[in-house]
Write a structure and sequence with these properties.
This protein is mainly alpha-helical. It is built from 4 helices and no strands. The chain starts with a helix and ends with a helix. About 0% of the residues are buried.
């Protein structure tokens, strides 16, 4: 699935996924496209993990109503 194909899909979960990925990127966190899995390696520092968790927390807080709709 390409980025443009995802944009054309009118499903709340797909739109939420795109919003989540964009939010992470805007916070300096790269999330590999095409997978719903995230991996952490020993190459990631504690600062990397903190930045990732902060980005995820801020997304959840700012998209709470949308998350409840797709749950």
């Amino acid at each position: 699935t390409t980025y443009r194909e995802l944009l054309a899909i009118d499903f709340p979960r797909a739109k939420l996924d795109l919003a989540f990925r964009h939010h992470l990127l805007s916070q300096g966190v790269y999330f590999h496209p095409g997978t719903a899995r995230a991996y952490f390696y020993d190459a990631h520092t504690e600062s990397d993990l903190d930045r990732t968790l902060t980005a995820v927390e801020s997304f959840v807080e700012s998209h709470e109503s949308l998350l409840q709709k797709v749950a």
